[in-house]
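S1.2 Input.
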Amino acid sequence: MTLAKLPAWALRLLEDERVGRLALLDGDDRPRVLPVTFAVSGGAVWSAIDDKPKRTAEPARVRWLRRRPEAALCVDVYSDDWDRLAWVQLLGRVEVIEASAGGLGLDALVARYPQYRERRPPGPLLRLEPDRALHWRAAA
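S1.3 Output.
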């Protein structure tokens, strides 16, 4: 399922929410979930490795995705009013791309997050092209 086939409310949720949770398998094939910034562009969802301090030159998530590129991104709305609950989950393969080749994806991230306008992320970028999308909301 492409992003274009999502219902309008699900596309709005991807546009409005600022943080998603990226689920992937680590080097020991154990599940991990990481909060990420993201932007939708060109039929894919993009995230960037920014310049916040890292423990190693290549962050673990990049190593894990190079080894096993399958991942899921979950973007949700939580409210104590359970009639407002909603989520979108995008499943697919992640491609690790150098920032210099990120083009529209990097531009979309920079446009979405003021912090990236001040300090462009050095990358690499993570490009998730969904081959399956799941979605749910409490509202009819």
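S1.4 Remarks. The chain has a mean pLDDT of 93.
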